[in-house]
Design goal:
By secondary structure, this protein is α/β, with parallel strands linked by helices. The chain is 36% helix and 19% strand. Strand 1 and strand 2 form a beta hairpin. The longest helix has 16 residues. It starts with a helix and ends with a strand.
Length: 218
């Protein structure tokens, strides 16, 4: 993700954004297109929650009214509007995570209807780790909604079933190598799970979505 976001240069090859090497973008221009949420987001200063979310609007010049409308919409959706005046350092782990998610989404959403800037890319590393089950479902559904509006979303997940439920395509990595990248049904197979994780599983169709559901053998 560091390479894909331009934070780190590739040791080999290159990352292209609109056929242009991502390392050639100026920081502001890159921030208008790419947002990344790492697994650990350290923020040790007592900024208010609304100020943290507002940081995502910095790359854009759409005006305060537009910025506020976007921020308030996302804070409402992620159930942090009532925390707006709370210091970030006083939040629980889940509240901090939802605040950080609102921040990166506010970087790529261009209005309160949740339309996104063209060619925008969102990179997330284990975004659901600190969230309870309802907020995990809420976030994944929101990401699906934004993807349907044209946002490219790349998420690192360790929960195979969560990935299978929501993803259009899945990439499986082992020891730093890409083993598979295809549609869900082509990747989530008994043989592939055995190759990557060295565990025996059964795979059934989810009763509601018909997506592959991985069940570990006892």
């Amino acid at each position: 993700l560091n390479c894909a976001s331009g934070v780190m240069a590739c040791s080999r090859g290159q990352v292209l954004l609109n056929k242009k090497n991502i390392q050639s973008f100026k920081p502001l221009a890159l921030a208008q297109k790419v947002a990344m949420l790492p697994q650990q987001s350290a923020l040790n200063f007592p900024f208010l929650v609304e100020d943290v979310v507002a940081m995502g609007r910095f790359p854009h010049g759409d005006g305060q009214l537009c910025d506020n409308a976007i921020m308030h919409c996302l804070m409402d959706i992620l159930h942090i509007r009532d925390l707006a005046k709370r210091p970030y350092t006083a939040l629980s782990g889940g509240e901090k995570q939802r605040t950080q998610v609102a921040r990166v989404l506010s970087q790529l959403v261009c209005n309160e209807q949740l339309d996104v800037y063209s060619d925008s890319i969102l990179l997330l590393d284990e975004p659901i780790a600190a969230l309870d089950m309802p907020h995990q479902s809420l976030l994944m559904a929101l990401l699906q909604q934004l993807a349907a509006k044209g946002l490219t979303v790349l998420i690192v997940l360790h929960d195979v079933n969560l990935a299978a439920t929501y993803a259009d395509n899945i990439a499986l990595l082992k020891d730093g190598r890409l083993l598979a990248f295809a549609e869900v049904e082509e990747v989530i197979t008994k043989a592939m799970i055995k190759q990557v994780y060295d565990v025996d599983v059964d795979i059934i169709a989810h009763p509601k979505t018909a997506k592959p559901l991985v069940i570990r053998e006892i």
